[in-house]
Amino acid sequence: MERNRKRIIGGALFLAALTLLLCARLFYIQIFCHEEFAEAALSQYETSLVGIDGRGQILDRELRPLTGAVYRYFYIIGKESADQQLNVLLEELDAVRVTLRSSRYEVYRTERFDASIHKRLREEYSAYAFRARTRYQNQQTACHLIGYLNEAEQRGVSGLELLCEEKLRAKSDRLLLESDAAGRLLRGVAPRKAKVVDNEAAPQSNIVTALDRRVQQKCEALLAQLCGTAGTVPQADAAAVLVSRADSGEVLAAASYPAFEPEHIADYLAEDCEDNECLLNRVLQAAYPPGSVFKLVVAAAALENDICPPSQCFTCRKTAEVAGVTLSCSTGGENGHGRLNMREAMAVSCNCYFAQLGELVGYEKILETARKLGFGETVLAGFPDETAGSVPRDADCGIQDTANLSIGQGALLVTPLQVQQLTQIIACDGLLREVKLLRADTEKRAQAGTICRASGEACADKRVLKTETAAALREMMAEVTRTGTASRLKWEVPARGKSGTAEASRNGAPMKQCWFTGFFEVADGTCYVITVLAENGDSGSSTALPVFYALTKYLASLTP
Question: For 43, phi and psi rounded to 5 degrees?
Fold first, then answer.
């Protein structure tokens, strides 16, 4: 009897201890693991799709969208609902499947909306339907500056998408979908958007560029005409154009042709793609011999060092010999230009004059001035993949190189952005002013979110040319449009500029790189700077100049 009583007591104590352990476990689960198990339970009927419309927009200077301007329609359908009729309906919408992280659902995207098909998808297939901004659009404007995304991770790979990645991506949208235990979407329960926030990142924001969408699109249209893809006869294989304001240094347009479609970037990156050259931003990633545009630098070197005044004359006899190198003048006719001063020689782009001037100045002073004016260095601090071009070292040059250097040939390579900066310095009375792609306007910031800047805080203007030198160069550039290589056009607004035609080669075949750079003022006093580069054209004055001229007329028309 005593033994049974002890067994009963022992069993009761064991059950009590077990009950206490179970209670403690339940207490631990309910109190300390509540969130974990709640999340697990929630996952039984809730699925999230990440990456829906969650990236900041890129805007132009007036807050007009450069990305995210177009809405597309999305349909989310359970995989168990798929049948042949569904495929027919989706084909009628030209819908494409979107790759998102879900094993239960298919997501389809379309740019079309059809009310009857929309109704059938909702009623017959329990589809969730919503619209969201698409990142890019067909014939995306400013595609080279904007760049593109890694499709899988939706991260910036190039251009502003990469430069401002932290600002644009700090937040992302997550779409929450409710379903039953079998994974079927619940009818009548709308999806909910939740934010996925990186606590260490800054809040997601739009960025405001200095670009003017209207001017950018005009530049792109002109380049399409120049290269023969707008129903015109091609005059060049590829091209680039820049437009900026001299007073602020803000870039209103930066177009490169051929362009690409960021929406289909995977096609361009494929190994067998023949169009991957479209990805090259010729504004700042490609370097070219400057040709006669560089005569502005040679003249500046002569004036800055008090070696030769603008009144200095040399004689052009069709050819000139410098240190054993013979150069010919292509613009002076059979007997050359005769006796010319610096202004007259700049107007007609006389090679013989500048070969003699270069010999007088010396290659050391020419190279020194080129570097002072920004050649051989990048212009935009931190912008992805910008090239610095090539300015030869003094040690790599000799007296024999002076002749070619004086007319912008030889080992010298520059970008259209560097030429734009040179022209802006001349227009700004010799001051080097920061070239800006992004705005830092407080009013715009309040409307559009925190602004990402390419080069940190604004830089103070830096004097790199004497006031007298800049004034003399402006007068020379004015003579180009009055009596020189650009005088054949009837200028509606007074313009100053310089043409250039550089000899080059591609795959062993000769070709010409054609330039025109200059500036002009409109009625309200705004000074615009424009640089045009055309690959494999005829000459600067016949190929690049018409684009410059068309832009002067267009920009003047925008002025009230």
Answer: -65, -15
